[in-house]
Design goal:
This protein is mainly α. Helix content is 75%, strand content 0%. It is built from 8 helices and no strands. The chain is elongated, with a radius of gyration of 21 Å.
Length: 171
């Protein structure tokens, strides 16, 4: 019984950690999410809340599928029993909203699913998302350069050169 409890606890911990990691929406920064969704929405001619909801739904679906797959693999290799997997799944499903907020910090995103939810083709979404990420990153970098100029750490000429290099970086 003690061994089972240890295995279940360790499995739950590993499962929780894996839910927090995974493939992130390329260069994802939760602090820039709203600005990125707004730019994607503008590019696609859609409402920002619909874009955010599609990303959230696709992220949740991918995360849930990953958890189910990880548990099935643990059962298959004999690390845990099916009953233990069911117990872990029930624990995961019953997690409070605060845990959901942590999980959303680095979403796994299936762009095919987001495109399906938004009713656009994946190439259009990829272009819009890339353009949005680049625009948000450029705005953030420009703001940091402006602060560096204001602090006297660099000149305006240096800032302009650095911004130009940033804008011309390989994508």
């Amino acid at each position: 019984m003690n061994k089972t409890r240890i295995v279940v606890t360790m499995s739950a911990g590993l499962l929780a950690l894996s839910a927090l990691g995974g493939t992130a929406f390329a260069h994802w920064n939760p602090g820039n999410a709203e600005a990125t969704y707004e730019k994607i929405a503008d590019e696609l001619g859609q409402d920002q809340t619909d874009v955010a909801a599609a990303f959230a739904a696709a992220s949740e679906e991918a995360r849930d599928a990953a958890i189910t797959a990880k548990l099935a693999n643990l059962v298959e290799i004999g690390a845990i029993t099916q009953a233990e997997a069911d117990e872990i799944q029930a624990w995961y499903d019953a997690a409070p909203d605060a845990v959901d907020n942590i999980r959303k910090a680095r979403p796994n995103v299936d762009l095919d699913r987001v495109a399906e939810l938004l009713g656009v083709d994946v190439e259009t979404l990829q272009t819009a998302a890339g353009d949005a990420r680049n625009a948000v990153a450029t705005e953030a970098y420009s703001a940091r350069l402006d602060a560096a100029v204001a602090d006297g750490r660099i000149t305006e000429e240096e800032a302009a050169t650095m911004l130009e290099q940033f804008e011309n970086r390989p994508q």
